[in-house]
Amino acid sequence: MDEHLIGDGLWQRVLEALRREPYMHLSNLDRLRRFVSACFVVLRRNCTWVELGCFVPSAEGAKRRFRRWAKKGVWDRLLQHSQPVAGPDVLHIDSTAIKCHRTATGARGSGEEAIGRSRGGLTTKVHHAVDGLGFVRKLLTSPGQHADCRHAAALTRELKPVAVVADKAYDTDTLRGRRAMLEFG
């Protein structure tokens, strides 16, 4: 079980980022480390929460806590603060289209869904910005029919790279005017 726990170096960066979070209870660090490790296992291995009996006392409780953190933006801030920082060099942006199951729409709670309709059916796009070290710096989701260029400014706004490498789908006058843009594809 200990081989699935996150390493000491990464845990120190995650813990440092969690200490910046308001209203974060850090009284039992061992349980918190097991919870974060369980979330990483679910995301890396694409397993279900029920399979995590060795990490957390309640799989359903861990799933609820994961969703609460996602809604509050804790995972986004952890991603920003827990990775080594590359210099302001080249930023790579691209998107991936994901086909959704036909029953994916209409979730309870009437939350915002990034699912769109196109000729291929129900799709979602995941836009990502990756730095020169290969670390993901920003993730966005959008409905599948949205053009990629709509999200170019949002992907690069806070990151301020020297140059942006992107395909033609992200080619906008706004992005070209702010920084050097190298095209591929």
Short descriptors:
single chain, 185 residues, alpha/beta, 2 domains, six-stranded mixed β-sheet, globular
Can you offer a commentary on this structure?
Strands 1, 2, 3, 4, 5 and 6 form a 6-stranded mixed sheet that branches. The protein has helices at residues 8-19, 29-45, 59-72, 74-82, 152-156, 173-178; strands at 90-99, 116-118, 121-130, 136-143, 163-166, 180-183. Strand 3 and strand 4 (136-143) form a beta hairpin. It is of the alpha/beta class and 185 residues long. It has 2 domains: 2-82, no CATH class; 90-183, no CATH class.
| Number of DSSP E strands | 6
Number of helices: 6
One letter per element, helices H and strands E, the order comes to: HHHHEEEEHEHE
Overall pLDDT level: 76
Radius of gyration: 19 Å
The outline comes out as globular
Spell out the blueprint of helices and strands.
Layout: H1 8-19, H2 29-45, H3 59-72, H4 74-82, E1 90-99, E2 116-118, E3 121-130, E4 136-143, H5 152-156, E5 163-166, H6 173-178, E6 180-183
Parallel strand pairs: 1-5, 5-6
Antiparallel strand pairs: 1-3, 2-3, 3-4
